[in-house]
Design goal:
Strand content: 15-25%
Strand order of the largest sheet: 1-2-3-4-5-6-7
CATH topology: TIM Barrel
CATH architecture: Alpha-Beta Barrel
Structural class: alpha/beta
Length: about 200
C-alpha cells in the first residue's frame, strides 16, 4: 500500500494486516517520499507489515521505527542466522519460502526457532509475486509446527477452496495482485467481499 485514499478506504474494511513493500525493485515499492502521516488512518488493531528483500538490518530497523511495523516479512533468501539476529528486535518474523515441485520441507527447520510464521508462495524468477498458484496438495508434507500465511495467485474465487484446507495450520491469507486495479492500488470492493467469505 502507498496511496493515501486507498489506504484510508482499506482501513475501513478492516483487514488483519496491511503491507508495505520496502524493495525498490518492486512495482509496489512504497517509495522514498511516503508521507507517514497517512499511517494515522490505520487503527492499532490492523497490523502493519514490512516486506523486505535482501535488506540489511539497519534498514529494516529504520523502517520498523518510522512505520510502526508489527511484523517483518523476509522474502529474499535470508539465512536462519539473519533471522536469529533480527529476532532480537522482538518484532515477529514471517519467512517466505518459494514452493516448487521438488521443494524439501525439511529445509525450513533451521528457521523454526526464530520465525513466528512461515509464508508459502509460488516460485518465480522475480520478487513480488507471480500471480500463479502452486500445488496446495504439496503442503500435506508440512508439519504445521508454525502457522502459515498462504500466498500465491489467490483470487476472489478461492475462498471456499482455502476454507477446505482443514489440515493446514493457516494463520492468514496473503492477497495482492488479483485484488488490484493497478500495482499498489487495491480493489476495495473485491477485498471486502473476500474477507466476508473467508471469515464466514
Amino acid at each position: 500500500m502507498r496511496d493515501e485514499s486507498n489506504i484510508k478506504a482499506l482501513a475501513k474494511v478492516h483487514p488483519d494486516y496491511i503491507g508495505f513493500i520496502f524493495y525498490s525493485g518492486s512495482e509496489r515499492f512504497v517509495g522514498d517520499n511516503f508521507d507517514v502521516r497517512i499511517l494515522d488512518y490505520i487503527p492499532e488493531s490492523i497490523n502493519k507489515v514490512g516486506v523486505f528483500v535482501k535488506a540489511d538490518k539497519d534498514y529494516i530497523l529504520e523502517k520498523i521505527n518510522i512505520f510502526g511495523l508489527k511484523l517483518i516479512q523476509l522474502h529474499g533468501g535470508e539465512s536462519s542466522a539473519f533471522c536469529r539476529e533480527l529476532g532480537h528486535t522482538g518484532i515477529p518474523i514471517v519467512k517466505v519460502f518459494s514452493i516448487n515441485e521438488g521443494f524439501n520441507f525439511n529445509s525450513i527447520n533451521p528457521f523454526k526457532p526464530f520465525c513466528k510464521y512461515f509464508m508459502f508462495d509460488t516460485e518465480c524468477k522475480t520478487y513480488g509475486g507471480s500471480s500463479r498458484k502452486f500445488d496446495w496438495d504439496s503442503l500435506s508434507q508440512y508439519d504445521n509446527e508454525k502457522p502459515v500465511f498462504l500466498s500465491g495467485g489467490i483470487g476472489p474465487g478461492d475462498a471456499d477452496s482455502i476454507k477446505g484446507l482443514n489440515n493446514l495450520n493457516i494463520h492468514a491469507v496473503d492477497i495482492n495482485s488479483r485484488f488490484e486495479k493497478a500495482p499498489g492500488l487495491k480493489d476495495i470492493s473485491k477485498i471486502s467481499e473476500f474477507i466476508k467469505k473467508i471469515k464466514s
